[in-house]
RNA polymerase sigma factor (Mucilaginibacter rubeus), 165 residues
Amino acid sequence: MANKEAAFKQIYEANSKKIFHLCYGYTGDDDAANDLLQETFLKVWQNLDKFRNQAMISTWIYRIAVNTCLTYLRSEKRQAKDELTPQLAETKREELSDKNEQVALLYKCISKLEESERIIITMVLDEVPYPEIAEISGISEGNLRVKIYRIKQKLTELYNQYERL
């Protein structure tokens, strides 16, 4: 049991920041993202014995987190991009410096993307290697590179629209 706890602690420390960013990308809300982070790692703990090392552990955890976030959004019948993010960005904007304001704006723009695009760009921002992103999202690496290029174009357009306001 102590061995499992030590392994879990290492896994949590190595992956929790990235998983939080992923959850935040879905919800646009710190509290909801923290809840989803905890739920994800609860599932990781419960299923750690079942992990087969067929994929990287971070890929396995991302899949659990994505499924947890999608279930949350469906059960709450909410789309973060419509409900939470605009108020969050407005509230945060008042209390953040210019650099943080740009980050908040970036997340606001990310929240306007489709679900699959949000997953991919969040992993790119977390510097997950492309082969791993391709495996998590179930598409070829070549297709992934095209998707990322298009997502970046979309984000640039969204960002520029907000900058003009």
